[in-house]
Amino acid sequence: MAALATLSAETVDQFFQNDEEFQTSGRPDQEFYIHSWKEKAAQAKKCQFLREAEKLKNQIANLEKDKNMHLYNKKNDFRKDFGNLEELDLKLVNNKKREQIKLQQQLLKIHNSVNRFQRQLQDVKPTPEYIEKLKEIMEEVENSINVFKEEQRQIYDELLKEEKICSQEILAFEKKIVTWALAVATAPKACPKAVAKVRLTKTLEEDLPVEVVEFEKFLQQTGGRQGGWDDYDHQNFLKIWTKHSGKPVYMKEALMYLPGRTEEETRLHENWYQEFLFLEERKKEAILKWKAKKQLEKEELLKQKEKSAGELERERLARAEARRRKEEQEKREKEARLEAWKREKELQMAQEKEQQLREEVYNRRRAKEEQRRQLEVKLAVEAYTRQKTEREELLQLEKLMREQAELEEKRRQAAREIVKFQKRVSVNDAL
């Protein structure tokens, strides 16, 4: 609309310049018609804005009506679950009312300042004090408007950030719901017969490596291979964690793609996943060693059938000793790996703490630089104000000196006129 008004004003101006009859009517008429055209364009723009605002207001009223219909319906099956939503809705409504009252107060303050300035302009007095007073009022109005615009801009930026985060969370929830629907649609039908719960027997636990048993117990106690999380959240966590190679910077992006999960829950899941990888790697190594051990035992068993009982006994004792030494060696190696993992974990935590300290130092440095910059601006403004005040005082002093010089000149001239008048009176008396 502003571009349309500018274009229309330029078109009218060009038309008036090309029209010979209008050119003969004089410049004041042309300016009057251009000003009238611009006022009409501004009025049209204002009407368009009011229509758009009324349309948005009606849309908001309809959406709130639909929301209240579902939220406050006592016959709804999810009435108990909507209790938290009612409290949140009431809190948002109260915040909205407080914001409206604050906004009206600020606008009323600006409106009163403008009215006071207009009243001062109705009775103009050409004195320095009156002009200075008008200048102060004008600066006060301008500062109020600038502060109001800056506050509204900051609020608008915050609302845009919240809207972006909310949109991403809604999109993640929608994908999650679609994933659930696909999982239900593709899930195999349950067998009519009850499926017996399989558990490791005592004999099987003794036969399997300790690492395998520990890994299976770990999965049973922590909620399976996803740590108690659903497949959608766990896959999103793995994707983002792998993308950042497990560095702490992944947390901010992960929270955006894990709606409903807090930072503490995500950090606990990260610790679980690291322990899961460590135990799984130990399990794989133990299974390889266990298979190799079983193969050797099978080969030795075939050889033992061809040897005498004494040789078998000596070899059995030797194998037992070798097994004992091997088990002790494996135990030492396992303890060494565990100690190395603990050191690595402590080092990682120390690095994270160091990174956090560096960020805090950087933020403090930026804050100090910002304070220094603001102080420099303040000093510059004060210097400018001081120079302006000194210049005004100098001008007033020069004006006062000129007035005194003129007054002194008038006094001397009056004295000369008096002397001339006295001389004329003396001459007349002499005659």
Distance between the termini: 90 Å
Provide the gyration radius in Å: 45 Å
Q: What is the count of DSSP helices, taking H or I runs of 4+ residues?
A: 11
Q: Please summarize the sheet with the most strands.
A: none
Strand content: under 5%
Instruction: Report the helical percentage.
Output: over 70%
Compressed to H and E, one letter per element, the order equals HHHHHHHHHHH
Segments where pLDDT lies below 50 for 5+ residues?
Answer: 1-27, 188-204
Overall SS class:
mainly alpha
Total DSSP E strands: 0
> What gross morphology would you assign?
elongated
Mean pLDDT: 78
What do these coordinates show?
Helix content is 86%, strand content 0%. It has 11 helices and no strands. The chain has helices spanning 2-18, 20-25, 27-71, 83-122, 128-186, 202-207, 210-222, 231-243, 250-257, 263-304, 309-430. Helix 1 (2-18) runs antiparallel to helix 3, helix 4 packs antiparallel against helix 5 and helix 7 (210-222) runs antiparallel to helix 10 (263-304). The chain is elongated. It starts with a helix and ends with a helix.
